[in-house]
Amino acid sequence: MGLCQSDASAKADREKQKQIEKQQLKKAKSEDQIYKLLLLGPGESGKSTLFRRLKTLYGDGYTDKDRLTLKSAIFNNTISFIQALVVKVHFYQNLSTLEYL
After folding, report:
1. What global pTM score does this model have?
2. d(CA 78, CA 83)
3. To 5 degrees, how large is the angle CA 36–CA 18–CA 16?
4. SS3 helix, strand, coil % of the chain, rounded to 5?
5. pLDDT score of 59 more than 90
6. Which whole-number Å values give the CA distances from 101 to 87, 92, 96, 98, in the listed order?
7. Mean pLDDT of 52-72
8. Cα–Cα distance measured from residue 21 to residue 15, given in angstroms and rounded to the nearest whole number
9. CA 19, CA 13: separation in Å to the nearest integer?
10. pLDDT (tens digit, 9 = 90+) per residue, 4-39?
11. Chain CA centroid to CA 87, Å
12. Which residues touch 41 (CB under 8 Å, ≥6 apart)?
C-alpha cells in the first residue's frame, strides 16, 4: 500500500482540475453577460405581459406547449369579442330604428 501517487495518476488529476477550472471560468463569464430584472407592481399591472413580450423579442420564444396554451386563449378571446360585437351591433341597430319612429 503506497501512499504516493504515480506520475500518470497525478498528471490525470491535474488535467481534470484544469478542465474544471476552465468550465468554472467559462460559466462565470457567461453569467456576467446575463442581466436580471425584478418586476414589481400590483396585480394586473402587466408584469407577466411585459415578461412574455421580452421573451418573444429577445429570448428563445415560445415552446410548443406555450403555443398550444396561447392558441386556445386567443381562440376563446376572439370568439367572446365577436359575440360582444354582435350584441352591440344589435343594440345600436335597435337604437337607430327607434330614433326614426
Report:
1. 0.41
2. 9
3. 110
4. 75, 0, 25
5. no
6. 22, 15, 9, 5
7. 84
8. 10
9. 10
10. 556 778 888 889 999 999 999 888 888 777 777 788
11. 36
12. 47
